[in-house]
Structure formats: structure tokens, C-alpha cells
Amino acid sequence: MKKLSLILAAALMCASLAACSSGTSSSSAAASGSETASASTSSEATTDDTSSGGTLIMGTNAAFPPYEYYENDEIVGIDADIARALGEKLGKDVTIEDMDFNSLITAVQTGKIDMVLAGMTVTPDREENVSFTDSYATGIQSIIVTEDSEIASPDDLGGHKIGVQESTTGHIYCSDDYGEDSVIAYTTGANAVEALKTGKVDAVVIDNEPAKAFVEANEGLKILDTEYAVEDYAIAVAKENTELLDQLNTALAELKEDGTIQSIIDKYITAE
Ligand code: GLN
After folding, report:
1. Separation of 140 CA from ligand 1 center, angstroms?
2. In a mutational test of the pocket of ligand 1, which residue from 117, 207, 233 has the highest number of ligand atoms less than 8 Å from its CB?
3. What DSSP element (H or E) covers 26?
4. Using a 6 Å CB cutoff, which residues line ligand 1?
5. Given the CA of residue 169, which atom of ligand 1 is nearest to it?
6. Contact 151, 157 (CB under 8 A)
7. Most C-beta atoms within 10 A of its C-beta, which of 165, 166, 183, 258?
8. pLDDT of residue 270
9. How far is 20 from 62, CA to CA, in rounded Å?
């Protein structure tokens, strides 16, 4: 799959450019029908060999600000910047494929993408299907309600309709804690928030940083003070791709050590 799309991408590049040069990740995005957020430093021709040179395909769901979102038709955010920094360390171009959050694990398992950076929480169930790198950020599951809501803590959620983003940890925890009948899953967090605004659900459980962005962008909503769950975000790769896992962990450690990861997070998240 991946090889085929890269060959197609290379063919398109050659067709559309006077010279068949490399690093034109927007062309490969056009070929695969996805958005692309960066071209980086690699000067070698595109290959699917992830051990040196070549392209790393990051999968994400770009409706999760400030980790991934669109700005002028480009996917930006903490995960895009971290992927770019990792790509630079490993000498690889990074292209970004936008898809449903729900599809990311299968996409990495089948080699459609090389890695998932999507504010993805490490969970034991997911660890059965993919490998996770060391964590690069902490996530918190928060509860959004309308300003006049009677819901004041997770204890009050029982008996209410809860909106979540499909297949996320918020979805999983709420189904476990309050029963599947109480939970309505939406494709994106934005859709869940829209449902809250129109009274289809009474609360939305979602990661704290997107929650802040949604509340800022929509009047009449607030985030409850009580955190629903605290979790670790990490990069997912295919189980058999131990080489990439090791490379990413080494690069991640260096980027943590030299302050790059923190400065990327600080660029998007202002301290309270
Ligand atoms: N952190 C949550 C999870 O991994 C949500 C991630 C997301 O929606 N992008 O399930």
C-alpha cells in the first residue's frame, strides 16, 4: 500500500515538476488525497525505507487543537511540529495524512502510515495492536458543560447524555463508567461540542487542550474543574517496526533533553 502510494507520488512529482527533485511533500499529499503539513530536510529521493532517508508518513485526525488542526489549508500544531523535529533528527521528510481518529490504528498496522501522532493516549488495549514510544505529553480528560448546567463533577454525569469523540479514551471510559446507552459518539470533538450547544447531549468528555480551544471558540460553555482522567500521549507505530520505534525513542529523548519538545508545547499552550 505504502509503497504503491509513494511510487504514485513520485510519478506525479516527476510529471508535475520540470526536474524530478525531492522534498515536494505537497505533491505526495495530492497523490494520496490527503493534506500535508511539512517538507523537511532530507535531500534523498523518496523511498519507503524508514531506516535512512525517505519519508515518514504521520497519520492524525486534524480536528484536535492545539495538537493538530488546519490553518490556511495546512495541518499545524504540537504533533505536526514534533513530527517535523523528529524527521529532521532522522533525516526524513514528514508528510501528514488526515483521517478519522477511528482509522489510525488500522492505518499504522497495515503500513498505510508509519506513525500516529494524534494526541493518542497509551492504553493497554491499544498496546495489544501497536507499539508506543515513550510519552511526549500528558493529557487530561475534561468535562465540558453549558454555563448553566447542573452538572458540577464527574459524579453528576450519571443519567445524563454524554457526547464523546468516537474511539477515544473519553468514549471508552464513559461507556465503562456510565453505560453505552448514556454515551453518544461523534466523528470529531467539534461535532460533540455542537451537540452540546444544541442540547443533544448534556456534557462532552474530551481531552483538556481541545476542550479549552472549543470553549474559547463557543460562547456559553465551561470546563469543570475536576479532571476526569490523566493520561500519557505517545507515538504509535506498527508492532513489527521495532527499528522505527527505537529511532523515534532515541530522537524523542534528544528533543526532550535539548528542550525542543517543551518549546513546541509552550508555543501552542500558554501556561495558566
Ligand atoms: N487522547 C484521546 C485518545 O487517545 C483522544 C485523542 C484524539 O481525539 N485525537 O483516545
Report:
1. 10
2. 207
3. helix 25-32
4. 61, 64, 101, 118-121, 139, 165, 168-169, 207
5. 10
6. yes
7. 165
8. 83
9. 30
Q: Distance from the CA of 102 to the center of ligand 1, in angstroms?
A: 10
The whole-number average pLDDT for the span 25-35 is 37
Q: Which atom of ligand 1 is nearest to the CA of 61?
A: 9
What's CA 247's distance to the chain center, in Å? 20
**Whole-structure pTM value:** 0.80
3-state secondary structure labels for all residues of 82-142: HHHHHHHHHCCEEEEEECCHHHHHHHHHCCCCCEECCCCECCHHHHCCEEEEEEEEEEEEE
Q: CA of 41: how far to CAs of 12, 22, 125, 195, 229, in Å?
A: 20, 10, 36, 42, 38
pLDDT in tens, 210-225: 999 999 999 999 999 9
Contacts of 223 (CB under 8 A, 6+ apart): 142, 143, 144, 208, 211, 212, 215
Average pLDDT over residues 56-68: 96
Ligand 1 geometric centre to CA of 136 (Å) = 14
* Nine-digit cell string for 78: 504540537
pLDDT for residue 42 is more than 80:
no
pLDDT tens digits, residue range 127-146?
A: 999 999 999 999 999 999 99
